[in-house]
Amino acid sequence: xxxxxEQTLTFRLMLLLSLFTGLAILPHGMNLSLPINLYLIxxxxxxxxxxxLPNLQPGRWxxxxxxxxxxxxxxxxxxxxxxxxxxxxxxxxxLLLKVIExxxxxxxxxxxxxxxxxxxxxxxxxxxxxxxLYLLMVVICLTALLLEINxxxxxxxxxxxxxxxxxxxIQALPIALILFVIFPRITQPLWNFTTGSSAxxxxxxxxxxxxxxQLIESSEVAFRVQFKQPPPPTEQRYWRGLVLWDxxxxxxxxxxxxxxxxxxxxxxQISDPIVYQVFLEPHNxxxxxxxxxxxxxxxxxxxxxxxxxxxxxxxxQPLLYNGRSATHYRTPQLxxxxxxxxxxxxxxxxxxxxxxxxxxxxxxxxxxQIVNEALxxxxxxxxxxxxxxxxxxxxxxxxxxxxxxxxxxxHYATSFTQxxxxxxxxxxxxxxxxxxxxxxxxxxxIVRQYDAHAWSEVWLEDRGWVRVDPTAAVAPERVxxxxxLNFGEEGSPALFxxxxxxxxxxxxxxxxxAFDSANVQWERWIIGYSREHQFNLMRSFxxxxxxxxxxxxxxxxxxxxxxxxxxLHITWQGKxxxxxxxxxxxxxxxxxxxxxxxxxxxxxxxxxxxRASRRRPDLxxxxxxxxxxxxxxxxxxxxxxxxxxxxxxxxxxxxPRRR
Amino acid sequence: xxxxLQKVIEAASNILLGKQEVVKLSLACLLARGHLLIxxxxxxxxxxxxxxxxxxxxxxxxRIQFTSDLLPSxxxxxxxxxxxxxxxxxxxxxxxxxxxxxxxxxxxxxxxxSALLEAMEERQVTTDGQTHGLPEPFFVIATQNPSHQxxxxxLPESQLDRFLMRVHIGYPERNAERELLAGDDxxxxxxxxxxxxxxxxxxxxxxxVSQVHVADALIDYCQxxxxxxxxxxxxxxxxxxxxxxxxxxxARAWAFLEGRKLVLPxxxxxxxxATVGHRLQxxxxxxxxQGDGMVKNLLSAVPIP
Lengths: 659, 305
Fold this sequence. Notes:
The complex is a heterodimer of chains A (659) and B (305).
Chain A (H helix, E strand, L loop, with lengths): L1 H7 L2 H15 L8 H19 L7 H19 L5 H18 L3 H17 L7 H21 L9 H24 L23 E2 L3 H5 L5 E7 L10 E7 L1 E2 L4 E2 L14 E2 L4 E7 L6 E2 L1 E2 L2 E3 L4 E3 L5 E3 L7 E7 L3 E2 L5 H6 L9 H13 L3 H14 L3 E2 L10 H9 L1 E2 L1 H14 L4 E8 L2 E3 L4 E5 L3 E9 L3 E5 L1 H5 L2 H4 L2 E2 L10 E2 L5 H26 L3 H10 L7 H46 L11 H11 L4 H16 L7 H11 L6
Parallel strand pairs in A: 15-16
Antiparallel strand pairs in A: 1-5, 2-7, 2-19, 3-9, 3-17, 4-5, 6-14, 7-13, 8-12, 10-13, 11-12, 17-20, 18-19, 20-21, 22-23
Helix pairs in contact in A: 2-3, 2-5, 2-6, 2-7, 3-5, 4-5, 5-6, 6-7, 7-8, 8-19, 11-12, 12-14, 19-21, 19-22, 20-21, 21-22
Chain B lengths: L2 H13 L4 H12 L3 E5 L6 H12 L3 E5 L6 H5 E6 L4 E6 L6 E5 L6 H13 L1 E4 L2 E4 L5 E6 L12 H4 L2 E5 L6 H9 L3 H7 L6 H13 L4 H16 L9 H17 L7 H12 L15 H10 L4
Parallel strand pairs in B: 1-8, 1-9, 2-5, 5-8
Antiparallel strand pairs in B: 3-4, 6-7
């Protein structure tokens, strides 16, 4: 045993072990804090250098010290040793210390198994498809290493253990699939990790000047939408998020002490409803996004009186829901309380604004005309739509309207809403997204943070609430094309991606779409595969069994059946292999019989080879080699997988001539 | 094959001139932990072969000359009343040895024969309600005259089955016989010869033999042979499963002597006459009821799968 043990702990194996555990730990670098990362790097460096310089191999006391150092570091940083972050930090440290400590074969097993666990913990932080692929690669490396450790002789090629790992993995796949598809899922996670540390970009429920223009610097995906029918044109793709009623003169919000309520709203649809599916990225907020204007609430959420979709719990995980909207509609009567609220003004209203509004009123006969006047004002006055608006300090709306005239959508929307209220037209502010790019490969729209938008709604007596987008009056391109994220100097006009840039650009775009599409499928079917999906799937197969125990039993049964199949397959394959070897040998014998040396049916391979060699000494070497090979394949205890192709090749090449 | 075994074969062939094949088969039989039956006419060297093997292997051996008045107690031993201690004391017989030469086994009565044959099968002896284990290793090399000779009690088939192999020695070739006639006395030569092997090594070789691999393809071949013997009209009975085991065990030992870790069809063929010759009987009234010729027919009739 001593001998084989020393064989195990070769330099090459130790180096591979160190590298693979390093690879397993690597992505945790993003999740751990800097001092812990530095400590880990130091430990890793120690491991590598002690491989090259055995003098550096630490003794027991030094290792103990390093272990306490790790524990102290983790505790002082997190004030605890349990929980996701501290636990992982501790685990990763211990793994590296274990790898430093490796003395026996058993230590290698332990290290590899802890590495598997470390790989699993990575999913507590990230579940992206790229990370899954990376971790799969690490697992393959680790398993190949495990195979290599268990070999008596080191394998000749690096691809040999990797190939074997892949074969094992493919064999295990059916069972993994069964477990994934039908094993009962836990509806609630065993423990709830807060993702507080990572900032999530998105709206807050309060709009201040400049809030959205910060948001558009991000190209993160807000949500994706797939329409069940032809999608509405771009100018109708307003994604309604939340509605703001109140202002303090600087920011807009909805006062929580006066909720709008969920009274059933009767909406007169003018167009057919549009049905679509939204795949929402987590934003930690209660509201959902829907195509303007939602007419029905998805599961676990409600439709408010001002047509917001409010979910009971904040969205902390990717959420898939069905939406139903009408693009042409007429909203019902406005109650007096809400009308009063939609006319509320603040003390930031100046005389200039009142004068402007009274000019419009003088020229107009009704509210609709006042709205048109306002839009014309934005269109004809030298307003600039810019991603880098100047800061308006004292009275933001007033300074914007009359002095700066450079602004982003929220400037236009807030000032327009205020002007409408001055004109005694009920108005409110709506936040959401506009547009979205179409993924041709996946047939869905991607709405990103930079599609964030703000617009107004005004109450017109004969039409109810009407969406008015003053930004469109200034920069109509905003509605039809995505913004080009090109931040010029302050106040420079925003640019738009009116056409895709050239051939290379479109290829890159295709790749981006393919990747995004794969990601969506991944999130939807792998990460988002829930107990609900399970039951739906089973119901669609006609099973109506509901208890977890029964599910468990069914799973075990299916695994047993698949193992049985695997067993049968292995025996069958063994038989196949044997007959294959025999067939090839028969071909060899036929070639010899053409020379007049035919094998008698009862003649053993060795006897025949000797006899044939005596008859044809010139072929003796070849005949003996092939026969030896045949004997090894057919009669030896264990033949290597690689042996048969070699044998077959030798027989193929054996083309003797008559003398 | 180890040099030690090679030495045993060479030394034995020096005594028994020109009979290397028989010597090798006999050695294979012992390595396969089987008992050996040597059958031939008187005077061709049966006893010499048995003696030579016992001597060269360095085993503690006893010779029992079977005669028609031999009693079982002459083989097993007897309990005698010890007057001083007032109890019966078992006195082990010649069977308590590692190697037993049972000379002319078919000259004894069936009663005496079965006493030895029981010991061979059970590797223990029971007398007066007491069981006595036999030493390890335990071999029986029995010799017998052809059954058609006068004054013989032929061994029944069931007892023949207990011998793993039966070998014939046959007359020597002319040159070998000349050397024998001209040379020294074989018995004296044997006395001068050193022991070639140590007992522990023998146990080790036996273990190694049991590790020699028999592939599925070879088991198929063995089964084809068994099945052929059962369905062919040439034989009175088919071969038993025990015969199948004996064939494979013998083939393992032969392969080991050939220096292989795996059994080839050739190994099986080499031991087949010795392992099944005494288990097969020709159908009909043939006077030659057993024979190697029959085995040769069997071999050529069954193709190697």
